[in-house]
Every structure is written in C-alpha cells, then in structure tokens.
Design a protein that fits this description.
Largest interface: A-B, 42 and 60 residues
Distance between the termini of chain B: 40 Å
Number of strands of chain A: 5
Structural class of chain B: alpha/beta
Number of helices of chain B: 15
CATH class of chain A: Mainly Beta
CATH architecture of chain A: Roll
Strand order of the largest sheet of chain A: 3-2-1-4-5
CATH topology of chain A: SH3 type barrels
Number of domains of chain A: 1
Structural class of chain A: alpha+beta
Bound molecules: iron/sulfur cluster
Strand content of chain B: 15-25%
Largest sheet of chain B: 6 strands, mixed
Oligomer: heterodimer
CATH superfamily of the largest domain in chain B: HypD, alpha/beta domain 2
Shape of chain A: elongated
Low-confidence stretches of chain B: none
Strand order of the largest sheet of chain B: 4-3-5-6-11-10
CATH architecture of the largest domain in chain B: 3-Layer(aba) Sandwich
Order of helices and strands of chain A: EEEEEH
Strand content of chain A: 35-45%
Chain lengths: 85, 370
C-alpha cells in the first residue's frame, strides 16, 4: 500500500504548480505522474512514485551510502576483505 | 531497475548479516512498522539471515489491514447505491465486511472500479457528471498527499459529484499505542520509509526519548532492511535510543514540506478506530470543515454507523506484534487469500497473506516431518 517505485523523469509539462506533471520512465514502462510535490525535480532526476504522485527525489549520493557504510564497517572490523561489488 | 536491484544484492545482504551476528550479544525483538517491509522480509527470507536471538515482529503498517469493519460496511452501503460509481485501490475489494465484500457488490451489478490513483477517480467524476463518484481514501501518511490533492483539485475546479470515504491513519500514535501496552515486547523499530518520505522523522524523536527505544527509518529492499536491523541492534547493544535514517536516499529529516502543507490544508487530525486494535486518539486524518462537502460519510448519511469486530481473527494481536500468523487456528485452514476471514489475509502486505504465500509449504513440511 505504501509502495513507491523509483523512476526517471523524461519530460515535464504544465506550469501551474498544482497541476505540474511529467512522464516518468520505470525501466521502459512510462507513466504520467503528478510532480506538484517535487517542485525542484528536473528532467533526468529519479523520483519515488506512489499512486500517481512523486513524493520524493532520489538522492544519488545518499543512495551509495548503504554500500559505503558496509565498506567502512568492513574496514574497521576487517570483517570481509572483499571490496563492495 | 536502478535503485532497486542493487539493494537486492545477495553478497551485500550476507555481509550485513555477518556484521550483525558479530555485534549481537543478546536476544532483541524489533518491529518493522510497514507492511511493505513485512512483505519483503518474508518474500526474501530476510528474517532467516538474522542471528538466532534477533526477532522481527510484524507491525500495524498495512492500511488495508487496519481499516475497521464499520468503514468496510459504510463502503459497501455507499457502493450499493445505483447512482454511485465507487472507486478504490484493488486490495480493498476483498476485505471481508459483515456478510460480503466490495467485490460481491460489483458482482451483483454495483459500479465498483479499481483505480491506480485518486486522480483517476476525480477524472471519472469530471467525465461522468451525472454519476456520484466516490473514492475510498485509505492509507497512511504516504498516501495522504495524493488524497489531499484530489480533494483540493475538486474544490478548485468545482467538481460537485466527487467525494471521498476517508480511512486515513497515522503511524506515530500506533507506535505509541504498542509501546505503552503492558504486553509490549518491541525493543526497537524499523520505521516506515515512505511514511517518513512525506512526514520526515522529527516526530519520532520524542517517542525514542520517552520510551527509550531506538527507531531507524528504513527502506524496503533486503539490503536496506538488513542495514536497518544492524543500525537498530547496534544502538540497543550500545544502550542508545535515537532516531537514525537508513533510507537517506529518499527521506529527509523535515520530509516533503509542500506535501505536508497540502495535507494540513485539507485534513485535520482525528481519533480513528483500527481494525483489531480499537480506537486510538489522534491517530488518523479526517476532512477539515471547509472540505466537508467532499466527505462521502456526510453526503450519504452513514457517518454514525458502528460495527463490532468479529472474534475469530487474531489479526489485532498480529498487528501489535504479539502473535504471528501461524498462531492463528484458522490460518491456511478456514482462512486463505481466496476466503479471507481477516484483512491481514487479504492485502499482499498483510502478515497472514505474506506467510501464506511464501511460508505455507515450509510450515506444512515442518508439521509432517517434525
Ligand atoms: S489467518 Fe485469517 S483469521 Fe487468522 S489472524 Fe490471519 S486473517 Fe485473521
């Protein structure tokens, strides 16, 4: 129910802030999405889409942190010498 | 798919599991709040990667599951009217009412439609001005911006034949209800990532302090969940009780401010009944007076109906983390996804349905061999 799927904005239409919408590509499937809640999102950005609304932009730098955290942990504890894949 | 596949990487998951085993010295019971997380945990077997003493119990975070019987009955009553086109997310159609569900209203000629977004329901109202179009607005904070926008646009554009049946619930009051129960066994929370995408996580800070419970805002993929568990257990082992954010790629501390603004403009905080749990004060959203014209309960005069919950189903205890689906005598016998007795068997995010789908065969095998 709270499922939200990441997709890439391929175009933006509409100037009225409430009606701002765009086309979002989910690995080949595109959908019309309301973009009123991500006023700063640009073409090329990834947004999380829930029931037809973008509710957040995906922060690319933060997205890598999950693996960076793992790497630092490995370094500290020498838990696993393998580099992150 | 980018931002999904990499978080399903088995190698990274195994490394988090190993790191977790290394820091765990005692048994800990954590609750994942959101049904989407429950679904992923059971589907990917995340719980099977955890060290022996670390237990995940499943939380109340499935809006379909916690919508009370009386609202289902109101939905059925409204949907049965000849002038009504009743629009809903698909999951709600199978939730059992007292004697039937919305799907059977549709089967007997009711105009019940599954929509993807509340805006689709609004578009239907615009396209069919002679019909009364009602949207079943269920959901947590994640869905509130969408429902608020549908009502706001309807008001702006003067769409008079549109209304919503509101069943909106809020996560923090449910967490407090769980923590303040004398039977509580939850020692740490994985907070619901998409709820926090909208609301941020400041409102969890007083809860973490008051109940001395770590709360880690967590995503939905296996690696996210394992990192969330790791962060939560590390706090417990170190004696800390803070709010941390595992899901920083989508969640900012302040949340989505424009979305919160529109939620507050359209909705106000009200007491709500939770299926199997009962009424929790200040635990849901209802329409503000200035948007009362869009309230389907008022429009169709069903506001004062109440219904008692049936007793066979133990979903209330499951939703509070006290029991697991297999503790229910009806699980997989009288109660299946084809013939659900309780809402936790209907939604793919309900704990009973997740166990039925991914764990039933194992349980059968254990029974025959063990
Ligand atoms: S198995 Fe069915 S009856 Fe038992 S708790 Fe789950 S939903 Fe309720």
């Amino acid at each position: 129910m709270c499922l939200a799927v990441p997709g890439k904005i391929v175009s933006i239409e509409g100037t009225d802030p409430i009606l701002r919408s765009g086309t979002v590509d989910f690995s080949g499937v595109t959908r019309q999405v309301n973009l009123a809640y991500v006023p700063d999102a640009k073409v090329g950005d990834y947004v999380l889409v829930h029931v037809g609304f973008a509710i957040s932009t995906v922060d690319e730098a933060e997205a890598k942190q999950v693996f960076e955290y793992l790497r630092q942990m490995d370094e500290l504890s020498e838990l696993d010498p393998d580099a992150p894949s | 798919m980018k931002f999904i596949d990499e978080y399903r990487d088995a190698g990274a998951a195994a490394r988090y599991a190993r790191a977790l085993a290394k820091i765990t010295t005692r048994p800990w019971t954590l609750m994942e709040v959101c049904g989407g997380q429950t679904h992923a945990i059971v589907k990917f077997g995340v719980d099977e990667l955890l060290p022996a003493g670390v237990t995940l119990v499943h939380g109340p975070g499935c809006p379909v599951c916690v919508t009370p019987l009386e609202l289902i009955e109101k939905a059925i009553e409204i949907a049965s009217r000849p002038e009504v086109t009743f629009c809903s997310f698909g999951d709600m159609l199978r939730v059992p009412g007292r004697s039937r569900d919305l799907l059977s209203v549709k089967a007997t000629g009711g105009d019940v439609r599954i929509v993807y977004s509340p805006l689709d329901a609004l578009a239907t109202a615009v396209a069919q001005p002679s019909r009364e179009v009602v949207f079943f607005a269920v959901g947590f904070e994640t869905t509130a911006p969408a429902n608020a926008m549908a009502v706001f646009q309807a008001a702006q554009c003067g769409v008079r034949n549109f209304s919503i049946l509101v069943s909106h619930v809020l996560v923090p009051p449910a967490m407090e209800a769980i923590l303040s129960s004398p039977t509580n066994r939850v020692q740490g929370f994985l907070a619901a990532g998409h709820v926090c995408t909208v609301m941020g996580f400041e409102e969890y800070e007083p809860i973490a302090r008051r109940y001395r419970v770590p709360i880690v805002v967590t995503g939905f993929e296996p690696v996210d969940i394992l990192q969330g568990v790791y962060m939560c257990v590390r706090q417990l082992e170190e004696g800390r009780a803070e709010v941390e954010n595992q899901y920083a790629r989508a969640v900012r501390r302040e949340g989505n401010v424009p979305a919160q603004d529109l939620i507050r403009r359209v909705f106000q905080v009200v007491p709500r009944k939770w299926r199997g749990v009962g009424e929790i004060p200040q635990s849901g959203l209802g329409l503000r007076d200035e948007f009362a014209d869009f309230d389907a309960e008022r429009r169709f005069g069903v506001a004062h109906h109440t219904e008692e919950e049936p007793t066979v189903c133990i979903s209330g205890s499951i939703l509070r983390g006290l029991k697991k689906p297999r503790d229910c005598s009806a699980f997989g016998r009288e109660c299946t996804p084809e013939h659900p007795l309780g809402a936790t068997m209907v939604s793919s995010e309900g704990a009973c349905a997740a166990y039925y789908r991914y764990r039933r065969l194992e349980a059968d095998a254990a029974e025959t061999h063990g």
